[in-house]
Structure formats: C-alpha cells, structure tokens
Amino acid sequence: MSGFELLLKIAGGVALLLWATRMVRTGVMRAYGSHLRRFLGSATRNTVTAFGMGIGMAGILQSSTATALLTVAFAGKGLIAIAPALAVMLGADVGSTLVVQVLSLDISWLSPVLVLLGFVLFTTRPSMTLRHMGRVLIGLGLMLLSLKLVVAASEPMRDSVTLQNILIPLSEEPVIAVILAALITWVTHSSVAMVLLIMSLTLAGVVPPALGLTLVLGANVGAGIVPMALTMAETPAARRIPVGNFLFRLLGVLMILPFMKLIGPYVAEISGPDLGRQIANFHTAFNLGLALVFLPFVGLMTHFMARVLPDRPGSADDLRPKYLDVTVIKSPTVAVACATREVLRLADVVENMLRRVIEVFSGNDPVLLEEVSQSDDLVDDLHEAIKLYLTQVSKNQLDEETSSRCVELIAFTTNLEHIGDIIDKNLLEIANQKIKKRLEFSEQGWKELVDLHRRTLDQMQLAMTAFVSGDVDIARQLIAGKEQFRTMEQAAGEKHLQRLRDGRIESIESSALHIDMIRDLKRINSHLTSVAYPILDASGELRESRLRVRPKSEGNTVAEVNG
Which of 48, 123, 434, 478 has most Cβ atoms within 10 angstroms of its Cβ? Predict the structure, then answer.
C-alpha cells in the first residue's frame, strides 16, 4: 500500500469520526435542545450543581465545546453568573471524557446494531423526537466504525522507519508535542475526536504510549482554544468563560507536563496493559484533577477575568439585558417590574426597526438595510432572556394578578419578536429585491405605502402605551386603528389594481413587492392589536363572540356578524 493511500484511509476515518460526532450532537440538540437549555439555566445557582450540570451536558452532547457555547449564550444574556459558568465548564471537561471512556471499550460489534436501529427510527418517523434519536444512534454507530477504520488503516504505519524518525524526536520534545496536538484539536474542533484518534494510533503501535499521554495534554489545551475562537465576537462578560476555562486547562498542563515521565508508569500500572484504556483513563484523571484543584478558585478567576476583560462602557451593541435582575427573582412583584422595563426596551428596539425600514425603501441603502437587520439579533436575544427570566419567576407562588401579568409580558414579548422577524425576514427582503432589481414604486403607490407605514407606527406607539397603562380607552383606540388600517389597505389594493389595468409600468414591475409589503404591514398591525384584547376582556368590554345571535322566524337561531 502506498503512503498516499495509507494517509487517505486514515484521513477518511478521521473525517467519518468528526462527522459522526457532529451527527450525535445535532441529533441531541434537535430532540432535547430546549430541555437542555432550561436545565442549564435552572441548575447554576451554586458551584456544585453547576459542575454536575456541566458533566451531564457534555456527556449528552458529547462535546465540551457545545456546552461552552450554550453557557456563553446564557452568560451573554446575564442569566448565568461567571463563577457558576466556569464551574459548568470544569464539569463539561470531565463529562466529555466519559464519552471517550465508553468508546474506548471493545464494543465495535455494536456499530451495525446502532446504525440499523438508528436507520429504522430515522426513516419510519414515529415522531420527530425519535427521528432525531435515530440520528444520534447512527452517529454513535459511525463513531465506533470510524475508530475501527482508523486502527486498521494505521497498522501498516507501525513498521514505518520514516514515521519513527518523526515520532522519536517528538517524544523528546513534549512542549512541541503539546502544541501540535493543540493545533490539530483546534482545527478539528473536537477534543473527543482527537483523543479517540490518539487512542487509535496508540493501539495500532504508531504512537508510543508516553507520547500518546503527552498528546492528550495538547488535546485538552486545544479544546480550550476552540470555544475561545468561536466566541470572539461576544461581549466581554461572555468571553470570560471560555478564556477562564482555557487558563485552567493551560495551568493544569504546565503543572503536570514536567512530571510526565514519572506519571506514565503509574498510569500503565493502574490501567493495565490495554493502551487504549491508559489513554482514556489519563484523559479522565487529568480533567478530574483540574476540577478538584480549580473548582474552589472559580470566584478568584472571575475577579481576574473581570480585570482582563472589563465591560465596554456604554457599548451600543451590548446584547445583554439591562434590567433583568436575577437577585430579585424570589420577589415576584419586583421581578415583574424588572421584566416590564426590559420588555419596553425590546419594544423600543422593534419600533426603531419599524421606523427605519421605510428609510431603506426610500433611499435604496444596502448599508442601512444591514444595520436594521442586525437589530433583529438584539430582539431575538432579549426575547429569549425575558422568556427565561419570567419562567424562573413563575416557579414562585404567584397571586392571580402577578401570574396574569407574567402571561401578558410573555405574550407581548412574543408578538414583538414576531414583528422583528417580519421586518428582518420579509420587509427587508422586499427592500433587498427592490435594490437588486432597481425597481421603483409608482408615485401614488409609494404614497399609499408610506401612509400605511405611518399608520402602523401610530399603532406601535398606541400598543406600547396600552401595554404600560392598561388604559381601556387607549385599547379601544388600538382596535379602531386596526379597522382604519383595514380600510386603508382595501382602498390601496383597489387603487393598485386600477393602476395595473391602466398599464402603469412602475406598478406592473413592482406589483409583487407592493402587495407583499402591504401584507407584512397588516401582519404587524395584527400582532400590535393583540395587546388590546386582554385589557378590554379584563374590563368586560369584549363579548364572548364577535357574532350575535338573532332568532329566525321558525324559532331557530342563526349567527349574524356583529358590525
């Protein structure tokens, strides 16, 4: 077998291993992602529970990186303090080693069983959850198969003189070995895959056991680099978590690296002659040691990281909530007031998006289009943060009024998030088509669109006022505004149709955009008007049905639309 063919087979096995790991992680997130996020948000009140949550999360997701990204997302929204988040990461480091422990067992016979069972679940589709679990089983089966392929492909390398000439000097340069393994782990974005590869090469006799242990240290350093690189654009508070975890890993490697020649024989004695178990056990022992040594110092690391990565003063793009105070969650009345302030901040962001979107159409400005689109990221983050915050508040014993207010806050927040999506994914897409195709609305058609947009802005301001005040008269105005919008919409549609009959070129070319824009403004109005109904219902201003019943001459009844 040629050297190129040999390397190609090993590279194919490694690629299959990486892909299978991704399949498992994706399947778990699609099946149970919302549950995992909720558990992560509720189990980080103290260091010990946070550490345990980290072990469980990484064990399920088969990735400390995936756990890190979830934790960073929560910390960026202010829902997890930095100290427990660092404890989650230490737990995730241990949890990912459990995956290696399981896969290091001689269970390659299980691969076809897992793939077959996963295929049945995935194709028969008994439910979406089971379908995603089928994906997980296929991924696990492919992971076992890929390890077998790597070991089989690596066996001819055992007697390679060239490879020995490379590895022998590397064994004498542990720092270079650590750096090399760290770089490979960073490139592959998977410490689990890297450690399994080291284990396979060691079993095949390609990598000496002592060098294999040193490469494991490098894999752990690389595993700390991956989430750091993936969160470079996050806020300073969020970035403190992966940076702090990387420092824990790096300090642990620096502490143990000088003693590797002494540690190697103990690992062999404890684990036995199985080289694969030696690699897996050392990997687990190293991360357990990290947790035992550094878990008491997560608070100290938090203070250090606050100095190294201070908050940006007055940053306009800070996506964290400003008013969701986690310290008052046990005081529902105060917490609801905090959530209300954050909802109003969210409403201001959405109103600004709505106000500026018409400028995108009038100026054909792609730069402004991108700025407005980016605001939707803030809308999504605030929506998620408010929802999680109120979920935690609702776990208290709430009176009827506070419970009702929580429901109203979540409903209004959801409507605002939908409006943000309509602006970002619909109106801005219409504007993008207008810019790309160099289309123009007719003068009369543009005036109609501007009038409808202005009415929608008026509705937005009324909705915000009604939400805060609960005023029945303002709620009535909001409902009346919806009817006015409907009248304007019908008139604009008739005039647009007449322009099409008249053969107006601008109207014909931009007809689809014109109609879609009116449709999306109507959808926004519907979301805004929904604020009024709970207010009117609570004051007894709504009937049970919009249909009133009138008797027929025969004595039966028919429904008549209440005009």
Answer: 478
Quote the tokens at residue 425: 């994914």
Please choose, from the candidates 180, 182, 184, the residue with its C-alpha nearest in 3D space to the C-alpha of residue 10.
184
3-state helix, strand, coil in the chain (%, to 5): 80, 0, 15
- CA distances 492 to 121, 331, 430, 513, Å, are 52, 50, 18, 14
At 181, list the tokens.
């393994």
Amino acid 488 reads M
- Full-model pTM: 0.55
3-state secondary structure 472-517: HHHHHHHHHHHHHHHHHHHHHHHHHHHHHHCCCHHHHHCHHHHHHH
Give the length of the chain.
563
Is the dihedral angle over the CA atoms 34, 391, 339, 299 positive or is it negative? Answer: negative
pLDDT of residue 551: 57
**Burial state string for 475-506 with b = 16 or more CB within 10 A and e = fewer than 16:** bbbbbebbeebeebbeebeebbeebeeeebeb
User: Which positions of the chain have pLDDT values less than 70?
Assistant: 1-3, 29, 32-45, 61-63, 73-79, 106, 108, 125-126, 147, 150-151, 154-164, 166, 188, 311-320, 506-507, 541-563
Helix or strand holding residue 549 (H, E)? strand 547-551
